[in-house]
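So, read this over?
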Amino acid sequence: MEDRPLADLFPPATRERWLGLVDGVLKGGDFEKRLVSKTADGIRVEPLYEPAAPVAQPMRAPGPWRIAQRVDHPQAEPAQALALADLEGGADALTLVFSGAPSARGYGLSAATVEELDAALASVMLPLIAIRLDAGGRGVEAATLLKGVAERRGEALAGLDLDLGLDPIGTFAATGRLGADFAKDLSDTLARFDEAGFDGRVGLADGRPYHEAGASEAVELAASLATAVAYLRALETGSHDLARARDAIAILLVADADEFLTIAKFRAMRRLWARVEAACGLDPKPLRLHAETAWRMMNRNDPFVNILRTSMAAGSAGLGGADSVTALPYTAALGLADAFARRVVRNSQIVLIEESNLARVADPAAGAGSFETLTDELTRTAWSAFQAIEAEGGIVASLRAGTLQARIAETAETRTRNVATRREALTGASEFPFLAEKPVTVLDVAPVPGEAVPFGAGETLTCAPLPSRRLAEPYEALRDASDTHLAATGKRPRVFLANLGAVAVFNARSTFAANAFAAGGIEAVNEDGFEEAEAAAQAFTKSGARIACLCSSDAVYAARAVAVAQALKAAGAERIYLAGKPGELNDALKAAGVHDFLFAGCDLLALLTEAQAAAR
């Protein structure tokens, strides 16, 4: 008997052998259409990659990423209690979100004095944690308040891990207003803090405004890089040493639930920054790279799905090399998160770090063909996009001219179509909606938007502000209308499913239709299959529904769909739909009263908008 390793007994696994097996499964199907996808930047995503040689690149310093929690309650006392609970529960960083900041979303600390901010941070031991400020146009004011708290407590700035988070350009992109002297204000703030022993970061190039407006991964990277370069120039012009200016800048990227692209994006950012450092004649140093989970992926309906999204996003950011990760609570789209929601999002990261051990390897994606290829392609594409912004005069000039907004709007329009057709599926919103979900709790704090002031003194520059959107909003609007109808009448809008034939014949399309209509807040009335058109019409009348949808196989449609549609129309159905594509029956079905066809890839959002209006 041969004593060889088991793997030696089989022929080597090659791409050619794999492609042969794939051809057998596809049975003539198009490989490109079925198995190859493209990102919003047009980067190919293959189904299989060869192993790649690891590419040496800057990464996070050895050790786990920091777990950062937002401090965004308007009142000092509850804000302090929530922050302290987070720190005692395992977080080791705080993001102080001030009222009026774009990311505050109607909430945020209202502290206007050193005493008020000190109260919000009572019992918080500043030297033991990292702090990042998020104050929008009030950035210099918030930084001054934090400096006052440190001085009041006798804490040396040199002993604190601080990111002042001044981001005049990101605030400009989000609000459309910017003080012309922002560069001088940024430089003067760094000088003032450095004189007090500060050695942290003053500027933050924030990718959130671009991501929330619908930007692709490469454009978010390019805009963040162009912002960081603008700050680097501003600090150098303000007589700061170039090395110190480099060390005074941090970058924040958005992490979403796409594991591959999120990891590749964070790795690409470190490569891009290292290229800028080399162009400046500086020896590369690890970039301070922050992450926050994506606002645009959050759902109001079925919010528990957000736990999965934010956990995937947080883990991917950590694997990609983020220094700190702020994960949004799963109820963030519904209001101000309570202690339970904050605990869930905090513990998710603790599990990722302490139990899943995701932070034990410096660059776990190194050498993986998929991640190395995506990182390389994303780096190249983002560098080209960065060069385009620079050719337009820099990011401020590009924003003032509206060219960057136009590029982002084009990508966002494509994504909107993909959401409407469910090419980009949203679990809990467009896919697998749950109309009987129980409400979740948030804090009883009404949003009170603070005044969004421009950053910097001098003449106010203006641009078209980038919108902040969540992908699920169109479906949520339909669900809201359904909830209103339910509250007023005791019933949701309903659709009668005219199931034809045996269960085994109609069940697949009936289930598909019920889920699709539920995405628009329309409840399905589902019954056993009908053999006769008149029986289906009588059941429709009895159901009380105003719209109907035929569900069965193509063979049954060919034999009965026209007669059933005619009977339903005669029974008073205001809209009749058919689950599936009509094929050669299109004209006959339309003449019989079928209004539209429900199938994978149809404009579901448009169909549901019309259907709900007719069903109410």
Observations:
- The chain has two domains: 66-420, 475-615.
